[in-house]
Amino acid sequence: MNMSDELEAELREQVRKLCKRYPEDYWQEHDRARTYPEEFVNELTDAGYLACLIPETYGGSGLGMREAAAILEEINRSGGSAAGCHAQMYTMGTLLRHGSDEQKERWLPQIASGALRLQAFAVTEPDAGSDTTSISTFAERDGDRYIVTGKKTFISRVQQSDLMVLLARTTPREKVTKRTAGLSVFVVDLRDAGDAVRVQSVETMINHETNEVFFDGLEVPAENRIGEEGEGFAYILSGMNAERILLASESIGDALFFIDRCQIYANERIVFDRPIGQNQGVQFPIAEAYIRTKAATAMRDQAVALYDGGEPCGPAANMCKLLASEAAWEAANVAMDTFGGYGMAVEFGVERKFREARLYLVAPVANNLILSYVGQHLLDLPRSF
Amino acid sequence: MRVIVCLKRVPDTGTSIRIDISGSAIDFEGVKYIISPYDEYAIELGLRQRDASDDGELALVTLDDMSAQETLRKGLAMGADSAVLLTGDFDMDGLRTAKALAKEVESAEAELILFGIKAVDDDQQQVGPMVAALIGRPCVTGVLSFEILDGRAICCREVDSTTEVVEVDLPAVLTIAKGPHEPRLATLKNIMASKRKPLEVKAAALTESRVCVRGLFKPVSRPPGRIVGEGPDAVPELLRVLREEAKVI
């Protein structure tokens, strides 16, 4: 083992140890009450895991995507869910890559310590969806500030954030020559927003806080704009690869959770005087889910290596997100079949993870859009939408 | 305050143990190791004392082979400042192990020398008190928590569900049981720092061994469960089985 292998192995072990303190009962309780796993997130923050991608200069650990991916994978493999806090790891990437030194000094150390939570990323709109350049939330320049008006939807963890990264138009779409132009990125301090930001929860089938967010004349100081005005689309895109790799890692964790559970149950559950895992109808789907998970992991590792090496990783990041989310969903269904009626029983924990694993087929990007991306950009086929 | 924690690595409590071909030792192939859990409690209490003093320092010591460096790094990741690995072939001879450790800790001028109450692999509970005797220091065993007051350690230990408070002059040897202070988890920064902390490796001064294991035997498999009946009608039979066969009531 070289130093990187050793560090990754040690990280995985320590994260597993931390997660052991939050057993199935803990997650079920929060799932039932639809409450935020505050204790878990606090412990993860205090241990420094959520600041692993922040450079040491700003109080983080300055580690790479490899370590970040391992942390999130282990959380989900343990039966937990990283969805409540994973964005604290990577949302700051836009600020880190494109913010001024002053902005980084101002926010990153507090994000690293957990004193500030930046885990809301306001891009999606009801009438824009995946068509990001069609967003209509507008930030009008007014002296040394911007006045923001508009509406966003499916914005996660707003109620668990102090800061939010916001993408808004600063030049109307009809006035720009390229539809990707005229969009700008801001850091919104939600603590100062008052009535100018209204947040309405969107109830979902899982314990994941997501919201509609309404901006009604929100004042954002011009000094909170990240980078150049009108260049925000490129800034947002640069953070998406990290997001896809990290969420793929959570899906891999989910898949391994199901496979681990199936492995134990199929060996222990005796029906007709033999373990059910002896039946090919039970065993082969588990084996197949395992193989697909391994394939997704190989693609994820490739994306990680490219990302950490500073190489373009868009294709690998997208493809690993698709493979991993599908592997997790397949493993989830295999687990439901393996457990039979017990799969539906809340106490076994499989049904909760089953619901959670479904999300990543459509978030943070729908898998159809990945197919479209691969068709158009890698295979040179006509644009499909 | 200088604190030394003597630790032992043991097979992970979740590891499936196999007996090797000799029939008298564990097959260590593929075994994953952890710090013995009681030693983790000792590290936790040691770290609290270290942090309570301005010039505190906590060093780890173990006797094992070279591969135990990985285990010492785990202790360093919990927050210990340095570690010493005494290399040598230790065995069931607790006095032999104690002599090797005593030689190391005697020269270190520590005010506190902590051990876990026992290693969870062999459960012998010998080495801590033996080291205390060899270096001529007082020893308190089974300590749940302690505080330092005017050069003395005020130790709480549990005896038959009663808390006994014991005062002991420093320097002293304490063996630590599972108390109220859960061992801390390593932070990411400490995990990274642990790779750079000093870890000294030196040969242990081992004497001749006088204890050997003659055989290891796995417990006999439990008989399968039995359903004695259903509903209230089964109660008399259940009582009879518990009284006459299991002899538990």
DSSP helix fraction of chain A = 40-55%
Instruction: Let me know the average pLDDT of chain B.
Output: 93
Structural class of chain B: alpha/beta
CATH fold descriptor of chain B: Rossmann fold
Helix content of chain B: 25-40%
* Net shape of chain B: globular
The biggest beta sheet of chain A reads: 4 strands, mixed
Helix/sheet category of chain A: alpha+beta
**What's the end-to-end separation of chain A, in Å?**
47 Å
What's the gyration radius of chain A in Å?
A: 21 Å
Task: Give the H and E element order of chain B.
Answer: EEEHEHEHEHEEEEHEH
Question: Most extensive interface, residues per chain?
Answer: A-B, 17 and 12 residues
Strand order of the largest sheet of chain A: 1-4-5-8
Count all strands of chain B and give the number: 11
Descriptive account of the structure:
The complex is a heterodimer of chains A (385) and B (249). Chain A has 385 residues and is of the alpha+beta class. Chain A is 50% helix and 16% strand. The longest helix of chain A has 37 residues. Chain A starts with a helix and ends in a 7-residue tail after the last helix. The relative contact order of chain A is 0.11. The mean pLDDT of chain A is 96. Chain B has 249 residues and is α/β, with parallel strands linked by helices. Chain B has a single domain, classed as HUPs (Rossmann fold, 3-Layer(aba) Sandwich), CATH 3.40.50.620. In chain B, helix 2 packs across helix 5 and helix 3 packs across helix 4. The longest helix of chain B is centred in the N-terminal third of the chain and has 16 residues. Chain B starts with a strand and ends with a helix. Classes of the chains: A alpha+beta (385), B alpha/beta (249).
